[in-house]
Amino acid sequence: MRKSTVRRGCAALATATTLALALTACGGTTKKDVADEGGSAATAGKADPNAELKKGLTVGFLPKQVNNPYFTSADKGGEKALKELGSSYKEVGPSSATDTSGQVSYVNTLTQQQVDAMAVSAQDPGALCTALKQAMKNGVRVVTYDSDTKPDCRNAFVSQASAEDLGRTEVQLLAKQIGYEGEIAILSAAQTATNQNTWIGFMKDELKKPAYKNMKLVKVAYGNDDAQQSFQQTQGLLQEYPNLKGIISPTTVGIKAAAQYLSGSKYKGKVKLTGLGTPNDMRKYVKNGTVEAFELWDPAKLGELAARTAVALSSGQITGREGETFTAGSMGEYTIGEGGVISLGRPTVFDAKNIGQFDF
Length: 360
Ligand code: RAM
Description:
Bound molecules: alpha-L-rhamnopyranose
Radius of gyration: 21 Å
Largest sheet: 6 strands, parallel
CATH architecture of the largest domain: 3-Layer(aba) Sandwich
């Protein structure tokens, strides 16, 4: 029986009985995924860099949350690339960034629909693992983008930039703005978010350096990538710490809500704010003096790279092992790094001088 026939039979079974049972019964009928030394679940077999890119594939995008403009831009980048490659795009996902069980259901749905690959931004490093491993057992290639799972739960992770660079540079940006002195706080997204937690780890490490001895991180607050909660958390931070000098918000939803709060308060321009935001969200706060500088990568490029990685995996050009290389269309050549990580590049710092050049 051909693989596709097996998979179709299994899908019929999946609708007839419970999904979990059916998927377990069907597991092992397709190529197994194996954990390589780097820890990622590389697909079995050898990569063939000269393999032709397959057309007619379906790649499902599953962001942390669908109504977040950052993910709208990212996933549009994926959609555009898939169209160019002659494959199909679909997007599913929860509207809340703290709905991990919702994300699990969407992984199962995509598996049941027999997509060829999925690109997932994980709300939590471990919660999706069982579902993603089941997907891979069923021949679905799994790429995480933006926010990773545990490495053995996906074939490759398309990272926006080096996590270390992002964490350290955000501290450096804020330190300059507050003259290396005073209390600071972090306004993060969800408490479980892999990406934000990794960056915060590097921020804390950066703060240990002697240059920052007069700066003190007093609190990490969580706004859950929800505008209202992030706004209230900012307000709460300033009530609790009236001497606060600065806030780092490594989330596009958080930084926008914090800027909105500061901009309408007596703290405008006095309490400094930096972090990760989109130029379109932050433009007016840079103009009105609430924010001096912040950073981000191009989300559409991240989505494009995730889509191109998914297609390269599905075509056998790469398997997810360290050292493999592939060409991501006009984006050029990428090499898979340690742990199956592919890095988009360096982030851009936006300020009053350059923000006018960017439209996303
Ligand atoms: C939010 C999300 C996303 C993160 C950006 C910076 O939109 O939390 O995961 O990468 O901010």
